[in-house]
Write a structure and sequence with these properties.
206 residues; alpha+beta; five-stranded mixed sheet
């Protein structure tokens, strides 16, 4: 009898030891929330090569969050978000900071770029892995606009410009006269009309 009683006592003690070995955060893990992420790219309409783009993400449905939001940008034309990102950045989540923005990126090639934002999770919130290619995470970069040939557009009919004054206070020779007609198609100035004048003062109304 004494041996059987001793056995029961040992079994009970073993049970207590097993119970105490259960992780204290097991209950937290079983009741952890699954947050969602809402996102918005900027600029929403994309733009030509040289446009700087970024992504803003907001974590929703959480409890006292910590952890990190990771921003990965894929492209151009990576439809699966499986290649090496062209840009990555990370920001820490706190209870008061749950809306975060990626590091700005300026694409050098046209195409469709896709952001993918993931949340690492913590003891009270499960990790979040969105699907690649969401409309709110896609931005289109177009080829740069064609260069305008020639120089800046001219303005025909520019008034005469007088040269430096003479030592006696009179005006020197006039510079070239009015501009000729602008050449058609390239915006360059046409040949200047010859407008050299004499070394006399200009009319009073000029």
């Amino acid at each position: 009898m004494r041996n059987s009683q001793l056995g029961r006592l040992c079994a009970a003690a073993a049970g207590l030891l097993v119970t105490s070995a259960v992780p204290l955060n097991a209950a937290d893990a079983s009741t952890a929330l699954t947050p969602t992420i809402t996102t918005a790219v900027s600029p929403a309409g994309g733009g030509p090569v040289g446009t700087t783009i970024s992504d803003t993400a907001t974590l929703n449905g959480f409890v006292s969050p910590t952890g990190t939001l990771n921003f990965n940008l894929y492209g151009p034309d990576d439809t699966t978000c499986m290649t090496t990102p062209v840009s990555t950045s990370s920001s820490s989540v706190t209870g008061s900071t749950t809306t975060l923005t990626s590091t700005p990126f300026t694409p050098s090639a046209p195409g469709t770029y896709r952001f993918l934002v993931t949340y690492t999770g913590d003891t009270g919130n499960t990790p979040t892995q969105p699907v690649c290619g969401a409309a709110s995470e896609t931005v289109t970069i177009t080829p740069p606009p064609p260069a305008v040939p020639g120089g800046p557009p001219c303005t025909p009919g520019t008034p005469n410009v007088y040269g430096n004054g003479n030592a006696d206070g009179t005006y020197g020779n006039l510079g070239h006269g009015n501009q000729g007609n602008c050449n058609v198609g390239d915006g360059n100035e046409g040949d200047l009309n010859d407008g050299n004048g004499s070394a006399t003062n200009p009319p009073e109304d000029e």
